[in-house]
Fold each of these.
Amino acid sequence: MKQLLNNRHPYMFIAPAVILLTLFSVIPIIVALVISFTDMNLKGLANWSAISFIGLENYKELFSDATFIKSVFNTFFYVIIGVPLVIIASLSIALLLNYGTSWIFNTFRAVYYMPSITNIIAVAVIWGYLYNTEYGLFNYLLSLLTVDNIPWLEEPTIAKISLIILAVWKGIGINMIIFLAALQGIPKSYYEAAEMDGASRLQVLFHITLPLLRYATFFVTVTTLIGWMQFFEEPFVMTDGGPLDGTISIALFIYQEGFRYSEFGYAAAGSFILFAMIIIVTVFQFKLQKKDTDL
Amino acid sequence: MATATKRSKAEKSLVILLLIIGGVLVSLPFLWMISSSFKPENEVLAIPPTIIPDNPTIENYINLFTSMNFTVYLRNTIIIVLFSFLGLLFNAMAGYGLAKYEFKGRERIFYLVLATMMIPGQVTMIPVYLILNSMGLTNTMTGIILPGLAVAFSIFLFRQFMITIPDDLIEAARLDGAGEFYIFFRLIIPIAKPIFAVQGILTFIAGWNSFLWPLIIANDESLYTLSVGLSLLQGQYANNFALQMAGAAFMVVPIIIIFAFFQKYIVEGFTMSGIK
């Protein structure tokens, strides 16, 4: 009887979400893999018989495409500078916020979280104004210190750094909350024991707090790295990849090939290279983590 | 003893001072946005800039609705937000189904949900566009809404929460003759209120901020969302920073107000979901 009762209902509960997920997440992965071996473009969209299989041609072409190689270089630039900055900043702020529980600390928690829930276009509009070479607040403040105007978004390397500053500002919130949740999970008795043994503040930080945050740090590192390897919104809304492709990222390259030039097959191949890179980096991190705990 | 409390008091002041300095730096863009949005067009370009507007005006906000179609954008955004709540219900149902029923293929479906969480958005973006195109759904509201309804991460969080609800409770309701859907709506949802609160806020924020997909799918201005409209405004009124700031404030302030009311649930939610 119970078997019979349980037969139909679970499927009714999961059906809507699972069908949608299949249609818009599972099938697209297969479609992407298939079209990455074809020359599908706008012509192929109108007339399917115009699509032909070209094997690994797209993948080969990508590695000789100067723009793609530049986008890989830029993405590494973003990841190598941005990820450590986000982690250090969010951990430091979480440690400060964990110091007390009064309303001041709650208010600041909200203040630091705010950028991460702010709409990316609003962010682009606000920061575009702040970064403006002539009328921007940043250059005005620097001019008070008699520093010359900085071309925040007009010079390739400075533009990359400007985007990193913006992305760090936006990325602190969520990681800070994860660190804060982990900090609040550390039993008070550990600190009391350390205090009785006469440990200094720094000793407590380095020998108790940070080791106990190991799992949170690992989680934050993995998710932040995955997120930054897909760096997209900031260059998309602020610079559109310019100047001179100086800020283009892999994800933005894929978007432009797919939706600006309608080279669907080529873009799909690019997306699989990005996916492969993400998997390699993530697996590598898990391997490192394992080694760390073995020791 | 006295010196110890004195030291910790000084320490606390130092922590608060650091938080204030950092807080001012972090909120500077917001403060600048609010201040500039009330400036008339000529004052916003003045050098040196005024910190508080000399001649405050709300003209910029009125212009959003008279010179731009912000009424239409607002309506579209609200439609998207409402439907994303329907999606939230679907996700909750799926989470409940995966957590509380034994059925064939359960493990496999759960792993499938987990696997889709790891796929980068760039991989599925183009195929989803092609699929919607073959269904004739590009440039329609349905095409904007459908792909965003089911969210793997949300299903996962609901499942994690609902697995902690005792089976006996559900069995007892069944013995009393309650139907499965009655149990879900009248028993499970009230118990799962905290997770609904978190997911509700996150869903609202995601719907309100939705930008890239509407931009890809919508060709007609009548389908634009607030974000797409704001980026249009940025292109059309490139040097009218006051109007741009008013548009940005119109998007950001509602989110901040909602967040300020519900922020404690978000922290609790992360503690609850066991990611720590």
Amino acid sequence: MNESTDKNLQFLSRFRDSMFENQIMLSYKGEISQNIMLGLLELTERKLDSSNEDQGIKSKIFNVMVGCLQNITYHTEDNKHAKSSMFLIGRIIDGYAIYSGNAISKDRVSDFRAKLMSMTDMSGEELSVFYKTWLTSGELSDKNGIHLGLIDIARRTGNTLDFDFENIDEDYSYFSLRTEIKSTL
Amino acid sequence: MLKELNIVGTEDTPGIIFDSQKNVFELSGRSLPEDVVSFYKPVIEWLDELEKNPIENLEFSFKLDYFNTASSKLILDILLKVNDIFSDGTPMKIKWHFLAMDKDLEEAGEEFSELVEVPFELVAY
């Protein structure tokens, strides 16, 4: 074993430790297209089926997945960091944690952050009213669609959104989102 | 006579059969297309035709497994269209099917039912 092999294997070992520690059952890094999304859904479905997960949780996971992945697609269109998008599902004691990350153009950040902040303060009832208002408002612009996607994630997960923005370069920030799906919900 | 609408379902688009001869009006499967508006255009157009030549006691069945938020907007458009025809005096009915365990799909049905006047039945299977 030469030095570089040793180093590579150490990386693999650290990576594995981290995957085990967070009980990651699915992890993806790269561009997210419609076809990649469908592939990830299929993989997730197979894994959940093999662990005999119930349909209620499965449906919730799919809905949150699609919301996260389409949100990534929206923010990373014509974005030079599209390949740095990430999506992970991990198990937690009473359910699943869904992680997603993507670069977002800095000129969108303040508006996006403000929307997220206002949502995290809402009760379940308020989110539901907010959702229905949007649904009946007659708008179907991408921006609202994606915004609605996040409202939908919030209301389906009992508003467990954790998020953060990190600076990556002059024009982009990296948006990280974590949410939980509980078996008891 | 209304033309038959028959769209075969795929991984990300629902199967749709609107067939007045067989008396089947059904949407089933998944709905998460990239472009919801263009996907549902023929459905909306078919309903425009129905509005001109209404059929009494028509029953629309929704048998969806899951759908994205953009699709829920279009599903509401379909329901509102059916609701309009109902309000103009043609009896119609909506049946919303959901797997008994799937609370989210049941709630989605309840939410839609609150937004229309047309008889709306939730059917657990």
